[in-house]
Write a structure and sequence with these properties.
By secondary structure, the chain is mainly alpha-helical. Helix content is 86%, strand content 0%. It is built from three helices and no strands. 0% of the residues are buried.
């Protein structure tokens, strides 16, 4: 446990029980929201990775020189 968290807990322990429970409930709700947001993010990334894998399986591979030349051509077209 971090020192900061220990300080927070020490201060909360000095409060009446009902206030301790109210604060604990808010902390738990916040942790649950964070976990849900992380789960959504992970699932979104998995979906994007799966889509990229699928697309790469449908597209023939490019050698590095061809890839770089295509990028350079796009940059040059954008400048004109």
């Amino acid at each position: 446990m971090t020192e900061l968290l220990q300080q927070v807990i020490a201060q909360i322990e000095q409060l009446p029980i009902d206030r301790q429970d109210a604060i604990a409930a808010r902390f738990l709700a916040e942790l649950e929201e964070e976990q849900q947001a992380e789960n959504v993010w992970v699932e979104d990334i998995r979906t994007k990775i799966d889509a990229a894998i699928s697309a790469s399986e449908q597209t023939p591979p490019l050698d590095g020189e061809t890839f770089i030349n295509q990028i350079l051509e796009r940059f040059q077209r954008g400048r004109v």
